[in-house]
Automatic annotation (TrEMBL), chain A:
This is Carbohydrate ABC transporter permease. InterPro entries: MetI-like, MetI-like_sf. The keyword Transmembrane applies. The keyword Chaperone does not apply. It is a multi-pass membrane protein. It holds the Pfam family BPD_transp_1. The chain crosses the membrane at residues 73-99, 111-133, 139-159, 196-217, 243-264. Its main location: membrane. Belongs to the binding-protein-dependent transport system permease family. The lineage of its organism: Bacteria, Bacillati, Actinomycetota, Actinomycetes, Kitasatosporales. One of its GO terms (cellular component) is plasma membrane.
Length: 280, 321
């Protein structure tokens, strides 16, 4: 296969031209969104084929922040996603290490319980979770946006697989040198596990950043606690005719995920291929 | 080969704890062993407490709630299977939402799998395979709400899709999202766009791992093009196809955000999905008992279809070992 990749035959040239066309068509919605974000008000549908309006209006991006507290949505989204990711990484790496490398009674049984919880869909959980949040007094709070989804067994499972692949001798050497399990975990295992941790971190971050159903249920005061998807949806509902602003807001919301994708594309693609990790 | 994560767990990694632990301990007992156990409990406590509070307890509670009349505010009363009976026999919306969800899955799943498989093979011949993977992956990780809002603009009657249908093919486009004949297919098209890159990456990795020797042997035997694909490559990739099909089915049965943003379930109830039914029963009509029952029915449907897929896999999925 690799030899085909270097040789240019007429056939492969045609194939690449067609492939480029398909890719362009595929990316057209995003391009069109960016183009619309730069059109002056009222020109969105003036000429559907035109990528630019009468002039490029960069002001749209600033106007978004006047029309709605978008900076608030971004900060909320970042806060929730960053804290959520830290909690997920901490809880699942510790648990994964105990499952992969420490010996204790009941390990396999408890691991089966962890695995079983992976089957329960979010929809089954949101209904009682709402009651739980009421009982905690957490309705309409950051805690409610963060904690209910920070303890899924998936991260534990993923990291356990990784820890199991690390040579046992390393751990033994650390133990002989007098390291406690905590020290071994922190100074030996975590640094080695960095690739797995970063894949888990990115997908957890994206999961929080994109989530919609739970914020829709638990947030009453969108202008104070809305995350980006929720705020955008509200804004869109009220300003559906102001497409230039909606698109400017949309384009802004795409930026963090696109930056992550560019920075970590090799890890991400490998991570998905190896684990089928869900970013959806 | 890509296998479902759950199957990797049964394969002991070399040098892992699957080896007899006594050998590793060198016969030492007592002190270090017991200390290790207490460390294990300490390490596990955040995860176990979190999982108990935020998953196990809610699951148990969801069982109880589905058996009660449980308004968000006000008195609860025991109903037995009344909520399930209501959903299946009386609620005019529930069965419609089941039908819509099945229609969505029946359209989305094959389209997504076939197109992402075809694209994965297509880009596998390019030296820029990596770049194409990333480009097609973009919609898979950008916020669904944003993707849906963008497509809502494209679908407007005065929008760009309607315009090109008219100017290139002379077709007067319907109002895609407001016409019950086109609303669901419009949602499906947007969803395929959004979901294709994810499965493309999985397939693409599976293609990379096809055993070179087998492919070369097949080529020497004269297998070309479609024959090579159907008789050699596809069977070798069947575990990946099975994985993708199963995962895509599970997620498409839970479709909500796209339909909610694009159509709000409309026109009429032609795109209301099962999750929207749960959401509306629970948080619009404020009857959490009915919502819990609806969520259980959704889960039951997913489990049933997944079980059928697992039983059926023996017929067409070939594992190496």
């Amino acid at each position: 296969m690799s030899t085909d990749k270097i040789r240019w035959t007429p056939r492969s040239v045609v194939s690449h031209v067609l492939l480029a066309a398909v890719t362009l068509l595929f990316l057209a919605p995003v391009v069109y969104a960016v183009a619309t974000a730069l059109k002056p008000p009222g020109e969105t549908f003036a000429d559907p084929t035109a990528l630019t309006g009468s002039h490029l209006r960069w002001q749209n991006f600033a106007d978004v922040f006047d029309y709605l507290p978008f900076q608030r949505f971004i900060l909320n989204g970042l806060l929730v996603a960053v804290i959520g990711t830290l909690v997920v990484l901490t809880a699942s790496s510790l648990g994964a290490y105990a499952f992969a490398r420490l010996k204790w009674r009941g390990r396999d049984g408890l691991f089966l319980v962890f695995l079983a919880t992976l089957m329960v869909p979010q929809e089954v959980l949101v209904v009682p979770m709402f009651i739980l949040m009421q009982e905690f007094g957490w309705v309409n709070s950051y805690q409610a946006l963060i904690f209910p989804w920070a303890f899924t067994a998936f991260g534990t499972f993923l990291l356990r697989q990784f820890f199991r692949g690390i040579p046992y001798e390393l751990q033994e050497a650390a133990t002989l040198d007098g390291c406690s399990p905590l020290r071994t975990f922190r100074s030996v295992m975590l640094p080695i596990a960095r690739p797995a941790l970063s894949v888990l971190a990115v997908f957890t971050f994206i999961g929080y950043w994109n989530s919609f159903l739970w914020p829709l249920i638990i947030v009453n005061d969108v202008s104070a606690l809305g995350t980006v998807p929720l705020g955008l949806e509200l804004f869109f509902g009220q300003n559906g005719n102001q497409w230039h602003l909606v698109m400017a807001a949309s384009v802004i919301s795409l930026v963090p995920t696109l930056l992550l994708l560019i920075a970590l594309q090799k890890h991400l693609v490998k991570g998905i291929a190896a684990t089928g990790l869900a970013g959806r | 080969m890509v296998t479902p994560p759950i199957e990797q767990s049964t394969r002991p990694a070399p040098g892992s704890a699957a080896r007899p632990s006594r050998v590793r301990d060198g016969g030492r007992r007592g002190g270090p062993r017991r200390r290790e156990r207490w460390y294990a409990y300490g390490f596990l406590s955040p995860g176990v407490v979190g999982l108990t509070v935020f998953t196990l307890f809610p699951v148990a509670m969801a069982v109880v709630m589905s058996l009660y009349h449980w308004p968000i505010f006000g008195e609860r009363s025991f109903l037995g299977l009344g909520n399930f009976r209501y959903l299946l026999l009386e609620d005019p919306g529930f069965l419609v939402s089941v039908r819509n969800t099945f229609v969505f899955t029946a359209l989305f799943l094959p389209l997504n799998v076939v197109l992402s498989l075809a694209l994965a093979f297509w880009i596998s011949n390019s030296r820029w395979q990596q770049l194409f993977r990333v480009l097609f992956f973009i919609p898979a990780i950008t916020p669904m709400v944003v993707n849906a809002v963008i497509w809502k603009m494209l679908y407007q009657p005065q929008g760009v899709i309607a315009h090109y249908l008219d100017s290139w093919f002379g077709i007067t486009a319907p109002n895609f999202l407001a016409d019950s004949g086109t609303a669901m297919i419009s949602v499906v098209v947007m969803s395929v766009w959004q979901g294709i890159g994810y499965n493309l990456v999985v397939f693409s990795a599976a293609i990379d791992q096809l055993p070179r020797s087998v492919l070369e042997a097949a080529e020497i035997d004269g297998a070309r093009g479609l024959t090579k694909f159907l008789r050699v490559q596809l069977p070798l990739m069947s575990p990946a196809v099975f994985f993708v099909t199963t995962m895509t089915m599970i997620t498409s049965m839970q479709v909500f955000t796209q339909t909610y943003i694009l159509t709000r379930g409309g026109p009429g109830d032609s795109t209301v999905t099962m999750v929207q039914n749960v959401y509306e029963n629970g948080f619009v009509s404020r009857d959490l008992g009915v919502a819990a029952a609806g969520a259980w029915l959704l889960f039951a449907v997913i489990l049933l279809i997944t079980a059928v897929q697992f039983l059926g896999q023996k017929r067409w999925v070939h594992y190496e070992h």
